[in-house]
Every structure is written in structure tokens, then in C-alpha cells.
Design goal:
Oligomer: single chain
Radius of gyration: 16 Å
Number of helices: 9
Helix content: over 70%
Structural class: mainly alpha
Strand content: under 5%
Length: 153
């Protein structure tokens, strides 16, 4: 139970997310299904809050002198990556979130969706599909592609 909690918490951490939680779960000896499900749930938990509140939080942070630079950096980080999403909209967002590379993931994808004023429903579905894709990719790497494929059959 403790290992599942570790995986859940790791999957919620920005920039680590499912890219870190699945390998940790595999290293801790968790079965693929348990690790995958807990990682997806943990990675998705912050998404609705980011989509709904990040603009308000960033606006507030800009009013606080010690937080202003962080808010500007977060907006710039999202804006810099948004061109990859803008062209293909919801599919672009899902692919952006789903390719497990540094700087991508549910947190950044949700930030981009918010900055682009994507509709909440489209954004949630796109991020969820991306998290599933990243989870399958990381599971294939962490559990070995043959072991991963044998589970699917």
C-alpha cells in the first residue's frame, strides 16, 4: 500500500509526473496494472485545478514582488511550447502530453490549454489521452516491451 502511495505522489509532481512514477513503480515491484492505474490517476488529479485556476493564480503571483518572476517564467514556459499545440488543437495537446520528454506532460499541457483558452472538456480529454499514451510508453520501457505486450494478450 505504501508503494502505491509513493507512485501516486510521484505522478503528481510537476516535471516528473508519469515519466517518473511508472519506472519507480516497476522498480518497487508493483504489477503493471496497479502501477499504471495509480500513475494515471495521480497524474490527472491536478489537471482540473490547473485548467480552472492557473490564470488566476498567475495573475495573483504577478502582484507579489517575490513571486512575479516565477509567474512570468511559468507563462513564458507555457507560451514557448504552445506553438506545438496550437496547430493541431486537441490532437496536438494529446501528443504533446503523451510524448514523455522533459518539459512535456500533464502540468505543462494543462498550462498551455489554459493559456490558449481551450474549452475545459476538450482540454481534459486531450490531457487524459496524452497521459494514457505516456503511461503506455513508460510502461513499455519500464516493464520491458515483451512483458508489457504479454500482459495485453
Amino acid at each position: 500500500m505504501r508503494n502505491l502511495l509513493y507512485v501516486l505522489l510521484i505522478s503528481m509532481v510537476p516535471f516528473i509526473e508519469i515519466r517518473g512514477s511508472v519506472p519507480v513503480g516497476a522498480a518497487l515491484g508493483l504489477s503493471f496494472p496497479k502501477c499504471f492505474i495509480v500513475s494515471v490517476i495521480g497524474n490527472m488529479l491536478p489537471v482540473p485545478f490547473i485548467l480552472l485556476f492557473i490564470k488566476k493564480i498567475l495573475a495573483w503571483m504577478k502582484k507579489v514582488p517575490k513571486l512575479e518572476k516565477i509567474a512570468v517564467w511559468v507563462e513564458a514556459h507555457g507560451a514557448k511550447r504552445s506553438d506545438k499545440v496550437t496547430r493541431y488543437a486537441t490532437l496536438g495537446l494529446a501528443l504533446f502530453v503523451g510524448i514523455p520528454l522533459p518539459g512535456t506532460g500533464a502540468w505543462t499541457g494543462s498550462l498551455i490549454a489554459s493559456l490558449l483558452d481551450m474549452k475545459f472538456g476538450y482540454a481534459i480529454v486531450s490531457v487524459f489521452c496524452g497521459v494514457l499514451l505516456a503511461g503506455f510508453i513508460m510502461s513499455g520501457i519500464s516493464y520491458g516491451f515483451l512483458g508489457f505486450l504479454s500482459f495485453l494478450s
